[in-house]
Amino acid sequence: MNSEIPSLTSPELTGLDWINLAVEHRQALLDKLPDNSAALVSSGHEQIRNRDVEYPFRAQSDFFYLTGFSEPDSVLLLIKKQQVKSILFLRPRDPEQETWQGRRLGVERAPKLLKTDQAWSIDELDEQVPPALENIEQLYFSFSLLDEWMAPIQEWLSLLKSQVRKGVTAPSKLCDLDEVLHEMRLFKSPQEAEALRHAARISVEGHLAAMRHVRPEMYEYQLQSALESTFMQYGSQKVAFNSIVASGENACILHYTENSDRIGDHQLVLVDAGAELNSYAGDITTTFPANGKFTAEQKALYELVLKAQQAAVTLIKPGVRYDVPHQTVIEILTAGLLELGILRGKLNKLIEEEAYRPFFMHGTGHWLGMDVHDVGAYKINGEWRCLEPGMLLTVEPGLYVAPESPGVDERWWGIGIRIEDDVLVTEEGHEVLTQGLPRSVAEIEGWMAEHNVHLKTS
């Protein structure tokens, strides 16, 4: 284990720095909002898994971004009027509930610890919000949460409109906060980039553990345990998304998460998984042979995907359109499939007709940050936007030859491959955050021969 990787308790990743960063985020958001406006952001609610058991709670990313706080049933209200205010509504202290359900920060401690101007019990939301919205012109909230917000907002606006003879006006414009806040989140600050760098490093260690412990005849979920326990040993308390551990033809299912099959001797294993650190995500995909050796067909397809992936990464720099790496991947994969005889015809026509789509049906990447498929527009006014410093994206081409693919020699059937890295756009070009994984066929086979605990003893 690399002792240089900090845990969640390391001072550079926790505590006051994150609260101060949230304060900076709040101020930056307020600077972008018009005068005489307000914004509402919710942490979300616990969800029942079965009977009286809840799913593990994770605060909504927008809320954590602006507060550094992760309790359920909390609401942040930002007011930009003559005097800017941040008001937090949260669960009050309750000794009996805390005995059963866990500690709460409480109203009294919140302003000092979270650096908000005021704090109220969440039970007082309907009482305190309407006066705060008096004579506010524009009210911002996430339109993706219309179901959550419309009933209370309608009630608050009706109450304010009933006071018109007292000179009170209600907000006359309801605006989508996502358009402003998500554009902010697209650009990572140096502190956020460092958190993402650590999440990536922990994710790398998890994938190395999977390569170290894989063996034929084990179950996919057993390999998942080696992966995710390593995340935790290195300080990540959560996975960034449901881990994919797909052997053989299961790898041809893009979001396969059952992880329930036995791993065959000559099968490839595709692992798509990432650690989460302080709500920031890693996202890596590795593909490797269960027995440490690629077959000829597996090697040919793997080297083709790796060629496309490395070519796409080299293109990432400021000023490059977001879709350019993807178009390059399409050209390389199509040419390779043509050379291998999986596709037949003229290259340009095959690309034009999207003949590659049965074997490569997804994009080459996505934004990465607090959400694994992070927020931020990909196009501006209908045109692909250009990359800028501070953006973080994945690069993840793949090839998937499903069993019984029509017109394809059966020796290729059931091979699924994806290779994914996390890439930060910098002033000079890019930084691959997920360094340290063996990637070429020779590197993987050599690394597994040396480090896989089962191959070493066989």
Quick description:
It is built from 14 helices and 21 strands. It has helices at 16-32, 61-67, 95-101, 110-114, 125-132, 146-161, 178-186, 190-213, 220-233, 296-314, 324-340, 347-352, 441-451, 453-457; strands at residues 37-42, 48-50, 53-54, 75-80, 85-90, 118-121, 138-141, 173-176, 238-239, 244-247, 268-273, 275-277, 280-281, 284-289, 379-380, 383-384, 392-395, 398-401, 415-418, 421-425, 430-432. The chain starts with 15 loop residues before the first helix and ends with a helix.
Describe this structure in words.
It is a single chain. By secondary structure, the protein is of the alpha+beta class. Helix content is 36%, strand content 18%. The protein has a six-stranded mixed β-sheet, with helices on both faces. α8 packs across α9 (220-233). The radius of gyration is 25 Å and the shape is elongated. The two termini are 24 Å apart. The model has no long low-confidence stretch (mean pLDDT 95).
